[in-house]
Design brief:
2 copies of one chain form a homodimer.
Chain A lengths: L6 H8 L6 H7 L4 E5 L4 E3 L7 E7 L2 E7 L2 E8 L4 E2 L2 H6 L5 E5 L3 E7 H10 L1 H27 L2 H10 L3 H6 L2 H8 L3 H13 L1
Antiparallel strand pairs in A: 1-8, 2-7, 3-6, 3-8, 4-5, 4-7
Helix pairs in contact in A: 4-5, 8-9
Chain A binds a DNA duplex (30 and 30 nucleotides) through helix 9.
DNA sequence: GCGGGACGTTAACTTAAGATAAGAAATCGG
DNA sequence: CCGATTTCTTATCTTAAGTTAACGTCCCGC
């Protein structure tokens, strides 16, 4: 008896692998729905965090703390997988915090449940590979942007690419953090661009 | 009849997965030894590059070209896997070039051969996952460094971390590129640090 | 061993980002 | 709807990186 609440997750996974009913039924018992109020933490720095989420509604940010300052390095939107990948994989305390920027609704499961599927199912192992590859490709491109583009170019990149929603819904001082600059600097870049 | 030339690769793979003889024999027929003279290209921008290498000897750099300028973003040493991961995975032309900085000796195989193993062997599929995870973790840390640390801090990071060999053997103008700054700027940072 | 090229440093100048502070604008909670 | 907080902009000053160019050194090939 498949629960329709979980369907968006099944569809998202199906974009990575061909998933039959039997495969899906391996995972479904591990799923739960979870609601997070605005400003609460999905992942907290210092804790070993093994929970993986799939965001149905709302958005979240992912930040590191240094000298008391928060550096926001990633945003999550509907349809994204959310986790402290490093903490889940390595079973070590998370160095990052993931905070709900709005009220959020997620489907969650424990990474250990997925790891069990890795052992028993080649299909799920493949899913794990494809997710990791997807992640690596995104990170590589992000890194190249940081190394090769100026702050202004990185901001322009955000404006047209498919990442446009980042700027639409996100307060500017978080965006500036994502770009690796200060809020003041982003404001100046925007002012410069308007004159052109 | 296992060829001892390929042993270092088998050992490297064994650090990721438990590999029995049968598993290994699936891969071995696809392996070749390859020598690259200094300054030749292992991967060339614009070509679809599906070759994966395992570096036995020598070192290589990985760079992107922009406005005629080369930006070196990665270095490879003995025991590293070398490939244009993105080009191999997505079967699209490589955006980067990988050049031998010294005479190099590698074990190479085609990524398609590995992909065939993904289909027939859960063990090799797992290897693919673990490699991708390893890569993603490294990229995440690199990205965080670029976002959170100043150029000077990034340079100091290079000095103590396990990445020390990067500075030992690599010309400074490549290192500066890796750090995301100009050679002149790196020279100044070094001069500043000496005074302290 | 000589000439040329690659590499690193230094200097002078330009440009842009960081820090701090103040004020305007928008948002939120009651 | 109002007051308080958050967010964004603007301005000033400081600091450091980019650019260009000159110079010295080292290394390599011929």
């Amino acid at each position: 008896m498949p629960d329709p609440v979980f369907l968006p997750l099944r569809n998202a996974i199906s974009r990575f692998i061909k998933l039959n009913d039997a495969d899906w039924q391996l995972l479904e018992p591990s799923l739960r729905e979870k609601k997070l109020p605005k400003q609460s933490h999905f992942i907290t720095e210092g804790k070993v965090e093994q929970e993986v989420g799939f965001l149905l509604d709302g958005n979240m940010r992912h930040y590191y703390t240094r000298d008391g300052e928060e550096k926001t390095t990633y945003f999550y939107f509907e349809g994204h997988f959310v986790s402290s990948y490093l903490s889940a994989i390595t079973n070590t305390p998370s160095e990052l915090t993931i905070e709900a920027m709005t009220d959020c609704r997620l489907i969650v499961f424990h990474y250990k449940d997925l790891q069990k599927l890795y052992d028993v199912s080649h299909t799920w192992e493949r899913f794990g590979r494809l997710i990791a590859e997807y992640l690596a490709i995104g990170l590589e491109q992000r890194m190249v942007g940081l190394l090769m583009l100026s702050p202004e170019e990185r901001y322009l990149d955000l404006l047209d690419g498919n990442k446009q929603k980042i700027i639409e819904r996100i307060p500017q001082h978080y965006v500036s953090s994502y770009l690796g600059i200060t809020p003041v600097s982003l404001s100046r870049i925007r002012a410069r661009l308007l004159k052109k």
